[in-house]
Amino acid sequence: MKKNYTISIPVETFWKRYLPLGALLCCISAVCAIFIVDRIILPRIVNVDKGIVTVPKVTSLSLEEARQVLYKAGLRANIQGREYSDKLKKDAIISQTPLADEQIDTRERRGVMIVVSKGSEVCAVPTVNDMNEYQARREILRTGFDIGKVTYKFSDEVVKDMIITLAPPSGSTTSREVPVDITVSKGAEPTSTQMPNVIGDILSSAQKQIEDAGLTLGSIKTQKNQSASAGSVISQSVAPGSTVLFGGKVDLIVAAGN
User: Fold this and answer.
1) Rounded Cα–Cα distance for residues 89 and 119 (Å)
2) Which one of 6, 51, 116, 138 has the minimum C-beta count within 10 Å?
């Protein structure tokens, strides 16, 4: 006759000891299973480690194309610098680090350092004589040159705000490292101007207003004046608001110090 055996476990011991231990063993088994599948089985099936990426070739591509190629590979482009190149046009990729076909772990790094071409160092200075100052500046910068000294002068032939000359001149070939100086027209030189009121102003301010009006500062004399602060203008040889010949001289009397 078959005997039946019964294992008796106290309820309190079951809930406090055996159930937590069983749950812990299940969790450990699940973690081990996931690790084995992710690190051993799957890489063998697909023959690739999901953290390792083969760097694509981006040299000779444009900067925008290189960014798109690297993005699709899960990488990003970091511009290391820009250099002149006689072989590659502006914004093309000269070099990359890491090199093409090298493998990198994207869990450690995702950036690919690239050097971007500034185009040929030698270039023709653009022709901007039919442009205004704003348009000329944009065109000069677009071709890779820097803006040098900007001078404004009167011209009877060139309309106000239009370009008179460039230095180096338009059409000449030179290094992009050479800044381009611009001379801008102030329009035809006026024959007359209006005298500003500089009484009460300090000498430096009065001189600036006179020169801005197209006049020339003449003699400066000092005179004691109890009601005016030292260094301020108390009299001017040309009445404020009067029309005078352009370039005319203006004499001033300035209050003397105590």
Assistant:
1) 5
2) 6
